[in-house]
Amino acid sequence: MSPTQITPEVLWAQRSSATVANKNIIFLTISVPDVPASSCKIDLKSNSLTFTGHSDTKKLTYHVELNFYGEIDVEESKTNHTARDIEFVLRKKDMKEEYWPRLLKEAQKMHFLKTDFDKWVDEDEQDEKPDDADMMGGMGGMGGMEGMGGMGGGMGGDGGFGGIDFSKLGGGAGAGGMPDFGENANDLGADGSDDDDDMPDLEDEEEDKGEEVSETKGESGTSATTATPKIEEVS
Questions:
Q1: How far apart are CA 90 and CA 225, in angstroms?
Q2: pLDDT tens-digit profile of 150-179?
Q3: Rounded CA gap, 23 and 130, in Å?
Q4: Residues 6 or more apart whose Cβ sits within 8 Å of residue 177
């Protein structure tokens, strides 16, 4: 009986730049758990990517073909294989400030293709991610590979990412991040605490309490409350 073939989930995000090549990239993740490198075949071309991989534990064969919206520089693209997925950083060939309007050439919705919100950043917020320029430094190259054979070159024990934590790229669309304290930051003291200029004066409070009760102590140490004697008029 032949193994079942399915289309894996594909996540993507992007950056763009007209001047910095390392910031003109596509982040692509193909989710294929329990697929060893020896069972993977990757065919990356300037305008397409084809992936096929088999999982013995799940008895599944994963297969997907992607025809890109624009061209990719294969020689400058990078990849990494993990126990859960195949991660790519694909270099866009055309240097432009504008984002690709979509990943694929055809303008139709694919059920397996989703936005990677952990990596996504809105087009007008790209400059707030200074680490993007160094993203591709330690990853394995794609150039000259046949299937998975060419992926190993230059990849270390950490999978070739040079210690980069992709989960911290985020910021992505709706991905949040550090809250903007904005104007409230100016209201904090040097030690980070709120200014206490508006705290009430305790002296007035103590005086109010003193007026409520007046007590004197006798020689025996017991308290005696003084009171004004009541004078009755005798007719």
A1: 89
A2: 343 333 334 443 344 444 444 433 333 333
A3: 10
A4: 170, 171
